[in-house]
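We were asked to recover a plausible sequence for a given structure. The inputs and outputs are reproduced exactly as logged, with field labels preserved.

PROBLEM: sequence recovery
POSITIONS: 345
GIVEN STRUCTURE:
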């Protein structure tokens, strides 16, 4: 396991969320599949329906305009939550497989529970950015914090960051997030990622709800140090989050594409690479393309700028025209200064 704020490689998180569909065996299978797909970490969510809201059916608690239309908040969370008694086991399994495992707590009791599990860090969901008491509780642990920023204004992010730092958070990462499920790519606004890093002097990344991996790879190219994607065994299996989750083969390909993008980014470089050194001989140069007799002038008919690169540099073309040859030259000979009566100074 490695430091999540590593400067070389992006830290890639597979979000389990509600994709276990109420089965610990499925949750275990998802953890194993995430490891096989190349995830650095598996993330859980620690709440119950009662720690999240109340069982109320009035209009305020009805869900509208999302995948979960027609349910109450309490009904959704009752279906989606990950039983707390599973979580130490899932963390142990993830660790055995070489991954980190941490969670998003949604109230103070969840933080206390996760402290007993000795999680390595905490995730703060976009919806909880405004929960100042929860931020203070999380910060008091002194552990690294990753905070999503969906639905937040710059002022709200600034307030949350100040709250965390003033109460004990030393290491912080902010994730650009579009809180739509799924999110359209045109609403990703990835250029916010480097701005978050510069504004708040911290690592920045992406909590991605778009379909596919293109947005995540683009985010890495813009400097994202952390990528988080919802992960499921199969979208066809259903579940509250399945419609916008990645399947194992998709996640694995995303990891490969991200790692390739990281290598490709490299550094500012204008020197030749090793492979370019091998290819440089195939650039153009000046060649005699028609037999030339000693004393004959070089003209556009008998000298051309062609590949390969064994002759004089093309910059000397105008200079050699009408100069006379020192010797007989066969077509196909690279032109050099020794072929000219007047040597190059």
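RECOVERED SEQUENCE:
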């Amino acid at each position: 396991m490695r430091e999540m704020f590593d400067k070389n490689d992006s830290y890639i998180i597979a979000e389990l969320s509600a994709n276990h569909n109420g089965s610990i065996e499925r949750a275990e299978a998802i953890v194993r599949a995430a490891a096989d797909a190349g995830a650095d970490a598996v993330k859980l969510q620690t709440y119950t329906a009662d720690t999240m809201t109340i069982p109320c059916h009035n209009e305020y608690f009805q869900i509208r305009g999302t995948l979960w239309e027609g349910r109450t908040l309490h009904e959704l969370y009752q279906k989606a939550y990950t039983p707390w008694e599973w979580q130490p086991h899932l963390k142990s399994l993830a660790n055995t497989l070489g991954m980190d495992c941490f969670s998003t707590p949604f109230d103070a009791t969840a933080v206390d529970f996760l402290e007993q599990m000795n999680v390595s860090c905490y995730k703060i969901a976009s919806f909880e950015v405004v929960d100042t008491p929860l931020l203070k509780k999380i910060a008091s642990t002194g552990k690294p914090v990753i905070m999503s920023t969906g639905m937040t204004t710059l002022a709200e992010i600034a307030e949350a960051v100040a709250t965390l730092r003033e109460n004990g958070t030393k290491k912080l990462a902010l994730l650009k997030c579009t809180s739509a499920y799924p999110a359209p790519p045109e609403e990703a606004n990835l250029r916010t990622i480097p701005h978050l890093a510069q504004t708040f002097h911290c690592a920045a990344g992406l909590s991605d709800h778009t379909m596919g991996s293109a947005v995540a790879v683009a985010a890495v190219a813009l400097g994202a140090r952390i990528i988080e994607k919802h992960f499921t065994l199969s979208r066809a299996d259903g579940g509250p989050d399945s419609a916008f989750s990645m399947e194992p083969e998709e996640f694995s390909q995303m990891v490969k594409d991200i790692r390739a993008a990281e290598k490709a980014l490299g550094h500012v470089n204008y020197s030749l690479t090793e492979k370019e050194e091998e290819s440089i001989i195939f650039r153009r140069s000046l060649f005699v393309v028609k037999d030339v007799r000693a004393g004959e002038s070089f003209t556009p008919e008998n000298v051309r700028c062609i590949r390969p690169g064994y002759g004089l540099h093309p910059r000397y073309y105008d200079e050699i025209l009408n100069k006379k040859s020192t010797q007989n030259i066969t077509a196909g000979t690279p032109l050099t200064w020794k072929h000219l009566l007047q040597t190059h100074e």
